[in-house]
């Protein structure tokens, strides 16, 4: 029979072995995926452009006073409705000033030209969620045009710029629910405000698309424009894909894949469609411009309809809405609005702070965390990031809390970070103090006193005597050091730290140990 201790050690060994195998498997998969992607691309060039629908975070719907519900799953169907958003005869739309303002703010955040005069159009097509057979949008004269967005790719090692054709306001449709072989309509979503961002064909890989969408999502969230929750369909993407041979000028037929609502699905859709088009062209098959529906479960797409030109929608000016002319006061207000642009922080974090990708990801994923980090002044950025992105982030995740719900005040954390910056505590002490602050809510100074971390440090003579005793007790390792096995220095440092009850700065101890070793007569 094996002892309990042996069984535990056996289990840990098996677990570590399994983890190593999984890690190796993941690495091999990544390498294989990279190689396969290169083989598949061959001499083909992939060109992508996007149509992104963002639900604006306003109090009211776009053209009526009904509540702009953000979470439809927990709302009774057909409660936030009126004659306007249900398209009843005689009801007239009135533009929401807040929704317009949110759209203009997004325009400024993405460096667009805000047009003083714009207008709305009717996009005519029939579907049950559009009882009036049209949608109100902006085709001919959108409010925002000629954007550009800067973002990073390749784990923040390379910058890229994407140009935007326009970003126009439009109303959303009602929601169709299919159950028991019947289709029913919920008008809570009808006429909620959307802004559709249409890019130029500047993307050439799925990774670029995902990084751009992440930056766009951060922009709208950081500036309270939209929650952009893809699971709740507050951000959905239509992907347009076309390929061509490297030596050709003209792109081949375009395919649009509609309404994808996750980054992983978008990536898989692009790569799957590239392979599908490549196989069709290599077998000399042709197809018309078309719209397809993504089937992520089976990693494929299905034809929805052929789609030729915008004329198919029979656009014409919206007769119930006059031209939209922005006042000079509103334009000045937009121009003076201060915005948070994640790209600017990332650029600073790379070029000035020299942050690694882990620090950057941890800080930009959540606006509260980034704001908390930026609000702490006069502390070295790396010292702040090390604690906020490490133990504090782990605590918030484990306890389902935000950084503003820490068990101690910001002032207490600043006090702790100040001691770290001044070098008054060594790393092990800092780790112990922060762990206890998170678990007990005690103040930094209180924990330091309890653990005697504030006891007087040894003077140089006292420290030198302790080091000499350590060297005397370990003559064999001293000889190893003399024969250029310099890694033994850390053994001596560890022994000195133990003898001083971890009250000594390890850097200071290491320097003094080296000095004494070189002074020994036997070294000569």
What does this structure look like?
This protein is α+β, with helices and mostly antiparallel strands. The protein folds into four domains: 1-41; 42-333, no CATH class; 342-450, no CATH class; 460-523, Arc Repressor Mutant, subunit A, CATH 1.10.10. 43% of the residues lie in helices and 19% in strands. The protein has helices at 4-41, 97-109, 206-222, 263-282, 328-336, 342-351, 357-364, 367-375, 381-399, 410-422, 427-440, 444-450, 460-473, 475-482, 489-499, 506-519, and strands at residues 44-55, 113-114, 117-118, 121-124, 134-137, 144-153, 158-171, 175-179, 182-186, 193-199, 235-245, 255-260, 290-295, 300-306, 316-317, 324-325. It has a nine-stranded mixed β-sheet. Strands 5-4-15 form a three-stranded antiparallel β-sheet, with no helix packed on it. Strands 3-16 form a two-stranded antiparallel sheet. Helix 7 (357-364) crosses helix 9 and helix 13 (460-473) crosses helix 16 (506-519). The longest helix has 38 residues, at 4-41. The chain starts with a helix and ends in a 5-residue tail after the last helix.
What's the number of structural domains?
4
How much strand? 15-25%
Average residue pLDDT: 86
- Strands side by side in the biggest sheet: 2-6-7-10-1-11-12-13-14
* Total number of beta strands: 16
Uncertain stretches of 5 or more adjacent residues: 1-13, 30-40
Radius of gyration over all CA atoms, rounded = 31 Å
How far is it from the N-terminal to the C-terminal residue, by CA?
57 Å
Using the alpha-carbon principal axes, give the shape: elongated
Structural class: alpha+beta
What characterizes the major β-sheet? 9 strands, mixed
Number of helices: 16
């Amino acid at each position: 029979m094996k002892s309990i201790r042996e069984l535990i050690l056996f289990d840990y060994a098996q677990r570590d072995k399994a983890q190593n195998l999984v890690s190796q498997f993941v690495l091999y998969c990544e390498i294989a995926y990279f190689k396969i992607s290169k083989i598949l691309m061959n001499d083909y060039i992939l060109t992508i452009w996007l149509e992104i629908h963002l639900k604006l975070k306003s109090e009211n719907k776009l053209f009526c006073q009904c509540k702009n519900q953000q979470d439809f799953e927990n709302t009774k169907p057909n409660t936030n409705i009126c004659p306007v958003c249900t398209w009843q005869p005689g009801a007239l739309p009135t533009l929401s000033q807040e929704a317009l303002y949110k759209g203009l703010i997004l325009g400024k955040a993405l460096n667009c030209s805000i047009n003083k005069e714009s207008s709305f159009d009717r996009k005519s097509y029939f579907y049950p969620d559009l009882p009036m057979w049209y949608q109100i949008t902006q085709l001919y004269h959108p409010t925002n045009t000629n954007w550009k967005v800067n973002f990073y790719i390749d784990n923040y090692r390379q910058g890229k710029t994407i140009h935007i054709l326009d970003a126009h306001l439009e109303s959303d449709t009602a929601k169709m629910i299919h159950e028991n072989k019947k289709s029913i309509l919920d008008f809570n979503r009808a006429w909620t405000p959307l802004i559709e961002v249409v890019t130029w064909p500047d993307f050439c890989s799925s990774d670029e698309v995902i990084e751009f969408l992440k930056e766009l999502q951060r922009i709208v969230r950081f500036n309270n424009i939209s929650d952009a929750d893809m699971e709740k369909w507050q951000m959905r993407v239509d992907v347009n894909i076309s390929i061509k041979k490297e030596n050709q000028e003209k792109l081949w037929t375009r395919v649009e894949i509609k309404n994808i609502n996750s980054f992983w699905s978008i990536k898989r859709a692009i790569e799957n469609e590239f392979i599908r088009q490549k196989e069709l062209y290599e077998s000399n098959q042709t197809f018309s411009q078309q719209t397809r529906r993504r089937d992520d479960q089976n990693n494929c797409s299905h034809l929805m309809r052929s789609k030729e030109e915008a004329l198919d929608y029979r656009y014409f000016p919206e007769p119930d809405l006059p031209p939209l002319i922005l006042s000079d006061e509103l334009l000045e207000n937009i121009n003076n609005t201060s915005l948070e642009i994640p790209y600017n922080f990332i650029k600073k974090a790379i070029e000035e702070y020299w942050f690694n990708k882990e620090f950057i990801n941890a800080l930009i994923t959540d606006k509260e965390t980034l704001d908390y980090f930026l609000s702490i002044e006069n502390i070295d950025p790396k010292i702040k990031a090390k604690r906020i992105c490490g133990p504090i982030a782990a605590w918030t995740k484990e306890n389902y809390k935000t950084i503003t719900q820490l068990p101690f005040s910001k002032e207490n954390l600043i006090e702790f970070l100040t001691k770290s910056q001044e070098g008054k505590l060594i790393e092990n002490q800092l780790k112990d103090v922060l762990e206890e602050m998170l678990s007990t809510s005690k103040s930094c100074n209180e924990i330091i006193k309890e653990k005697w971390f504030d006891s007087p440090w040894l003077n140089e003579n006292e420290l030198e005597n302790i080091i000499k005793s350590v060297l005397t007790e370990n003559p064999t390792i001293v000889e190893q050091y003399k024969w250029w096995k310099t890694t033994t220095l850390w053994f001596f440092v560890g022994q000195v730290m133990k003898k001083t009850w971890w009250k000594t700065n390890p850097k200071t101890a290491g320097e003094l140990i080296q000095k004494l070793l070189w002074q020994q007569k036997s070294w000569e």
